[in-house]
Design goal:
Oligomer: single chain
CATH topology of the largest domain: Aminopeptidase
Number of helices: 13
Number of strands: 10
CATH superfamily of the largest domain: Gcn5-related N-acetyltransferase (GNAT)
Structural class: alpha+beta
Largest sheet: 10 strands, mixed
Radius of gyration: 21 Å
CATH architecture of the largest domain: 3-Layer(aba) Sandwich
Length: about 325
């Protein structure tokens, strides 16, 4: 895959990599046989140029996908997929190309535009959700050996080195790591407007605190995206203090306090967990650009035979 594809042909880089677009390796997102993957790799056709937010939600969309990518990136890409709302092809034309729509699931979002306080957030929770929220927040706040911190992210090597092992361990536990180590470091060095939430184990005092959980987030337009998380699963305080939920609850609190933020986007997967926290499903489609009818046939066949949505979405 050509990591320098944004250079040349008279165009500079437009969108932000990893936020507006990124290259997804087919090895990680399809179930193609190994011999086919190797053949695609040799031909440099082993990736999809995906245009959309990393949560699977629409970004520039069909009407704006050329605005966030360069001509060279689009020409080199063996396949282009654009995230947008379902049913967008009815009023969309793109000279010289045909498009295929594939429904890929839901992104889970919370509208905080009218919320003024934590109490407003609680009104969107179910009875069980309110009980879980109250119990988890109370237990965490009463635990003297943990400390929550939300700060602006600084993409230094020291900070990335601190969080990478927890991200890698979490990916290993869940059986799937979205970002390689190279991409994880590149993302956290380059993406603007990032925040990071830390939960520290301060059992041995604040001078010897240990990182127990983290989640980096970014702001895109009026949407807050809590994204990459990691946890030290060997620390018993992680489970007893429900650190994953505490971080997400506090990101919601932060979004409510910010006048420029109207939404929180948690992306796909874990439907039961996210709906219990008040997040609503937003249907999303991927639109595949095809140069001719033969390519359209290849894409349709490949997606039907080798793409497994459950591998990416993994709803319980």
């Amino acid at each position: 895959m050509d990591r320098e594809a944004g250079q040349g042909l008279g165009e500079g880089r437009k969108g932000v990599e990893y936020i507006d677009y990124r290259c997804y390796p087919m090895r990680d997102y399809t179930d193609m046989p190994e011999y086919l993957i190797k053949g695609l790799e040799m031909a440099k056709c082993d990736y999809i140029l995906v245009i959309g937010r990393p949560t699977m939600a629409p970004g520039a969309g069909l009407r704006g996908y050329k605005e966030v990518t360069t001509k060279k990136e689009r020409l080199l890409a063996p396949c282009i997929a654009v995230y947008d709302h379902p049913g967008m092809l009815e009023e969309f034309e793109d000279d010289g190309y045909s498009w295929i729509e594939m429904y890929i699931g839901d992104a889970f979002m919370l509208d905080v535009s009218e919320m003024k306080s934590k109490e407003d957030y609680k009104t969107v929770l179910t009875k069980k959700g309110k009980r879980n929220y109250t119990q988890k927040m109370k237990k965490f706040n009463q635990e003297k050996n943990v400390e929550y911190e939300l700060v602006d992210w600084v993409g230094s090597e020291e900070n990335i080195d601190r969080v990478w092992p927890l991200y890698a361990a979490t990916g290993e536990k869940n059986g799937f790591t979205v970002l390689t180590k190279e991409d994880f470091y590149k993302y956290h060095r380059s993406v603007p407007n990032q925040k990071v939430a830390y939960i520290w184990d301060v059992t041995d005092g604040p001078e010897k605190k240990k990182l127990m959980s983290f989640c980096t987030a970014f702001v895109w337009k009026d949407i807050l995206h809590p994204m990459w998380c990691g946890t030290d699963y060997e620390n018993p305080l992680n489970r007893s203090c429900a650190t994953y939920f505490i971080i997400l609850y506090n990101y919601v609190h932060y979004a409510i306090e910010q006048p420029n933020i109207n939404w929180v986007d948690l992306g796909a997967s874990q439907r039961a967990t996210k709906t219990s926290m008040g997040f609503k499903p937003q249907p999303c489609s991927a639109y595949f650009r095809c140069k001719n009818s033969f390519m359209q046939m290849v894409v349709e066949y490949s997606m039907e035979k080798y793409y497994d949505a459950e591998k990416c979405i993994a709803d319980p």
